[in-house]
Amino acid sequence: xxxxxxxxxGLVQPGGSxxxxxAASGSISSIYSMGWYRQAPGKxxxxxxTTTRGGTANYADSVKGRFTISGDNAKNTVYLQMNSxxxxxxxxxxxxAVLRTTMLSTYNIYWGKGTQxxxxx
Length: 121
Known about the structure:
The protein is mainly beta. It has no helices and eleven strands. The strands form two sheets. Strands 2, 4, 5, 6, 9, 10 and 11 form a seven-stranded mixed beta sheet that branches. Strands 1-3-8-7 form a four-stranded antiparallel beta sheet, with no helix packed on it. β4 and β5 form a beta hairpin. It starts with a strand and ends with a strand. The mean pLDDT is about 95.
């Protein structure tokens, strides 16, 4: 069974930095993309950043220039370096993966359980 395990969340002051990590494990045969979404209280889940195995990255306009997504293909791990954090970045950050398992021929979407990021003074 596929697992996505996030780490690195926490409390940070405005202007500070955090690095999130997400490791995918289980019966994985191929990963197309991994990324990060976030959900603040009372709001819809939104895309933060995604990256494909080939290195194509996409960012939400609100984080462009402040966040950087990267990955380690050998470890099935994706990272999100978050700099110049703002209070409006406060949310639960969810790891996302589009991947194929050893049991299925199609790519499916998987989600981690989320990690809390709180930006406050």
